[in-house]
């Protein structure tokens, strides 16, 4: 009985999530929006099977960059909100890195070192609940192009 009702409910939740988070604005902007990334996975399962893309020390350095250079204009929710996750989730990490490196800080784009940008990205991963590991995230376009920004599904409203 439980099993019989679980799947339709999960399916409905997926459809609702895809509708809410994949609204017209986002689909228009990014036609490759994949509802599959919104599949109902528990946050626990998520943490267990998520690649560890950065080190804790690196996120700490990134937090310093954030405080000194980014926090004047941004609150951390700017990079953790459901909108942000919907926009960047499932995309290559290199896209996010490039976006930040080429446009931020808004008043002096490109003014930080590649390492500082990379550490800021590591901090953004941490803010989004992605697990730290043993291997540093490198400022390497090829490596980052092969890594996905796999954010947990946005919390239920
Ligand atoms: C002088 C103000 C300012 C500073 C400093 C600044 N930003 Fe921004 N940032 C903005 C504005 C304004 C936007 C939105 C417009 C845009 O995308 O250009 C933005 C957008 C972003 C986005 C895109 C958000 C999205 O929803 O896609 C990211 C990521 C970001 N900033 C990261 C950073 C990081 C990391 C730093 C520090 C290295 C930083 N910003 C420093 C003003 C700033």
Describe it for me?
This protein is an all-alpha fold and 157 residues long. It has two domains: 1-40; 41-157, Cytochrome Bc1 Complex, Chain D, domain 2, CATH 1.10.760. Helices cover 54% and strands 0% of the residues. It contains eight helices and no strands. It has helices at residues 2-21, 24-29, 43-48, 56-70, 82-88, 93-103, 114-127, 141-145. α6 crosses α7 (114-127). Mean pLDDT is 79; it is low at 9-40. The chain binds heme C (HEC). Residues 65, 69-70, 72-74, 78-79, 84, 87, 100, 103-107, 120 line the site of heme C.
Ligands present:
heme C
Any idea of the CATH class of the largest domain? Mainly Alpha
Q: How many angstroms separate the termini?
A: 28 Å
Identify the CATH architecture of the largest domain: Orthogonal Bundle
**Could you name the CATH topology of the largest domain?**
Cytochrome Bc1 Complex, Chain D, domain 2
Work out the strand percent. under 5%
| Class inferred from helices and paired strands | mainly alpha
Total helices: the number is: 8
* Order of secondary-structure elements: HHHHHHHH
Helix content: 40-55%
Count of discrete structural domains: 2
* Biggest beta sheet summary: none
Q: Name the average pLDDT.
A: 79
Globally, the shape reads globular
**Secondary structure: number of strands:** 0
